[in-house]
Amino acid sequence: MKTLLELRTFLIVWVGQFVSLIGSSMTRFALIIWIFQQTGNALDLALLGFFSYGAYVLMSIFAGVIVDRFDRKVIMLLADSGSGISTIVLLALLSMGELQLWHLFATQLVSGALEALQVPAYSAATTLMIPK
User: Fold this and answer.
1) Which of 1, 103, 115, 132 has its CA nearest to residue 57?
2) What gap in Å lies between CA 78 and CA 44, rounded to an integer?
3) Cα–Cα distance measured from residue 18 to residue 120, given in angstroms and rounded to the nearest whole number
4) Do 100 and 109 contact (CB within 8 A), yes or no?
5) Band (21; pLDDT cuts 50, 70, 90)
6) pLDDT tens across 31-51, in order?
7) Distance (Å, rounded) from C-alpha 105 to C-alpha 17?
8) Do residues 75 and 18 touch, judged by C-beta distance below 8 A?
9) Closest by Cα among 107, 120, 41 to 76
């Protein structure tokens, strides 16, 4: 029982990060389906992946340095919040009938960059939350 209490903070953060990453992946998958239904164009699908994973790769170059210099909790909170806000923006645009392809590309660019910060911040913070 003592071990479970010692891992409480880690379990809370782990569940939060799990939900966040699953939500981002499900959103990306839904966007792929929406783009294909709207355009039927494979180039648009490829561009969505390019903006999302391209931003992830480019930001990954700097992510380790950023994570080491700033508070990991703040980075994880900002990354999760930014991804959530970008998803809400897409939902609002869709419900107003104003959603366009460039909106998807822009939000996936931001989400990919934030995810590149989130992953190393979580990995580095994990070692600090688990007792020896």
Assistant:
1) 115
2) 28
3) 14
4) no
5) confident
6) 888 898 888 888 998 998 899
7) 23
8) no
9) 120
